[in-house]
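Class prep. Write one:
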Amino acid sequence: MKFNWGTGIFTFLVLFVLGGVAFIFFASRQHVNLVHKDYYEKGVDYSEQMKVEARSKKYSRSVKVNSTNDFVLIEIEHSLAERIDSGSVLLFRPSNSRKDVLFKVQKAESEIIIAKENLIHGRYILKFYWYTDGLKYEVDQPLNIQ
């Protein structure tokens, strides 16, 4: 068989289509890691999130995080802990949402102990959410697990 310009163009097009199919297959197997699963709905409610942050600003120093070799200790000021109706602590992992860890907070609980064996090394953002008298509050703090 003689190799001429028609054969070259055909070979190029076949390789191009095969490369495109291989890329589509590869891309469909990749995990899409959005910040939240309901990313778009949270964007719509952003004005509410701004109100929560403004309400919570005065409590930013009421939550302290201490890390030791074996555990992470979250201390909540006693005056704030008494006012909490319900709450939760989210250890948010920006690089991989599958590694996020969520803990429920009991009413009037002023210390939360999290074992480091449940966490992997790296950066987390501690998000402490709580409700008092029907209003939502939130305090965020960076956390590095070593």
Remarks:
- The beta strands are 63-67, 71-76, 86-92, 101-105, 111-115, 122-132, 135-145.
- Residues 91 and 126 are 5 Å apart (CA to CA).
- The longest strand covers residues 122-132.
